[in-house]
Amino acid sequence: MATRLYREAIREALIEELDRNPRMFLMGEDIGRYQGTFRVTEGLFQKYGPKRVWDTPISEPGFIAIAIGAAIEGLKPVVEVMTWSFALLAFDQIVNHAAKILYKSGGACAVPIVVRGPAGPGRQLAAQHSHSLEAWLAHAPGLKVVLPSTPADAKGLLKTAIRDHNPVMFIEHPRLYLTKGEVPEGEYTIPFGVAEIKRRGRDVTIVTYSRGVVLALHAAEQLAEQGIEVEVVDLRTLVPCDWETVFESVRRTHRAIALHDDWRFVGFGAEIAAQIQEHAFDYLDAPVLRVAGADVPMPYNKHLEALAVPNEQHVIEAVKQVLA
Amino acid sequence: MHTIIMPKMGDAMEEGTLVRWLKQEGDTVAEGEPIAEIATDKATVEIEAPVSGVLRGISVAEGAVVPVNTPLAYILQAGESLPSQTDGKAGAPTSTATPVLAPAEMPTPVAAPSATTPAPTPAERGERILASPLARKIASEHGIDLAQIQGTGPKGRIVERDVLAFIEARKAAAPAPAPAVAPVAAPAPAPIAAGERVESLNRLRQITAQRTTEAYQTIPHFYLTIEIDMENALALRQQLNQINESLRVSVNDLIVKACAVALEQHPVVNARYQDGQLVHPDGIHIGIAVAVEQGLLVAVLKHCEGKSLRRIAQESQTLIQKARDGKLLPDEMTGNTFTVSNLGMFGIEQFTAIINPPASAILAVGATRRVPIVNDDGSIVPRQRMKVTMSCDHRVIDGAVGAQFLQTLKQVLESPMLMV
Fold first, then answer.
1. Fewer Cβ in 10 A, N or C end of chain A?
2. Which residue ranges form the domains of chain A, and what is each CATH number?
3. How high is the ipTM of this complex?
4. Touching check for B384 and chain A: CB below 8 Å?
5. Long-range interactions of B324-328: CB distance < 8 A, separation 24+
């Protein structure tokens, strides 16, 4: 095991896959000479040159469309969006083209692209740049949606994403880039659709992903001191989603909380709650609660932003509420 | 807002008659003023207004008989309005709604409703019972009416812990179920007399006591005995043991192997009864009763189907040694689908054994003895003969099925080539 930052683990995955697959290339704004806004692609332009690491103009619909075309023609583009909020400009390309071409071509034409970049609040990026878009993306059939919470997961899942034959939306979290974790030595991948129980507990199941996992684990530690044992299920991929692990956990704990940074209203937590009540109704001893972002445009003000984003205290309160 | 309910005027009271209203809808009433007359089967009493206010939402007509705790009407104070439904479903479960009515007269035979009268449950108020899905499931599995349970969750919701507590309480309160057949005389434990010595039993003996009692009382046993000629089997054993001195095959190994062969041909004997169904196990797992210093153990030889005699001998030696050393793993003591108990080495000619669940049959093996046998031609010859008695669970094995099994067993032991 080696200790890596989340962004270093992503970079390692990119390097290993660039070395493995000569048809793969990276593209995005400021990823080359500038080495990436969040330094994920640091040193890659210098190492692989302009043919494999393309700096693009500020034109998301344009370069994502180019990536789709390149993928159809047999290349493996891995596109960085500076933040997923900018990808909103390219949603027609993502939803109407990347997600649909395989279907509309009767299975003849796959679009194996990866779009990756940060999404989520917590860096004072204000109302337009703090979106969590996983619910939007997961909503459209045809896209795989991945949200790693640890460096090890980020590396193993990104390698799987790059080898997938479908469009994969790989959502990193700006607040996780500088978190550290153990990363296995050598070659490994993590399959999609396999959730990981990051902490075992008998009392409450918290179903979450991305930064929510970190929050849930911190809250679980505090609650353990009060004798409350929280189980933390990290979904890791929302499409495909490992519901069976969720149901199995709920069948043991009888209580569940969905947790994410994204807005609460019509967020992925609503899907989690719906799935649990459909499939584990008889095992529930309390309503499934959601801990999620406030339904407001993200404030720029640091203190207001903190109020709009879930924190450990929110998680602890929800746990106590379902245990009441 | 205060709810006026049909008060419980005594432990036995379940319903009451509203004789007449002393105040009408919309009347202003003062605290302590009689507002209605009710009758129990023992007396007629007045109920008083618990607070001052306006009488509204009269929902029970004069002459009606209603269960205890049914809302009759409400007393509203300034600014208050009736709950949206006044059809008797709106009694609020808060403490202010607990009956604080005192009868105007106190007839002697009726106990006054005390302050400790339990708050009516939602069911008693005719409301939907709030219960978690899990609580509902557990309750229905135990045949419990949720109306009997007081919820402690948010909004009085019945949650898992409430149902579990109820089940515990019921268990504690319920008298032991009457035995189906009343014992002639209840066996009261005999007093310890002077000179008697009391020895506490070790865990193994306690478990044996409990299990054998349970098995003998709950499994309908019947017994089949057959005599088997052991000349050929003993000759085979002697040959095997001469050829290979490192692994000795015992008579018991021969019997176990023969049982495995017979069980393959009569799978019903290997099955077990469970909840009105027959369960066919994943293999033939033969338990061997082993006497150890602390008591009795059953070492289970797993998957005997297709196992060679030598393999059975080898594994059973290991298991029996582990049993004697107290080193059997839990998995090596459970899951037997058939049991063999052998007391032949003690010269016991024949005996019956108690079935050892989950197996449905146990074979009690007696001593192999040299006895005179009358041949068909009238000649008398000495032969090695062994009697075995199988105890059968009649829910699984009928007499004929058990008999056919024993015939096969006899055939295999008398022609041991069939073990190959």
1. N
2. 2-183 (3.40.50.970), 196-323 (3.40.50.920)
3. 0.74
4. no
5. B324/B290, B324/B292, B324/B293, B326/B292, B326/B294, B328/B297, B328/B299
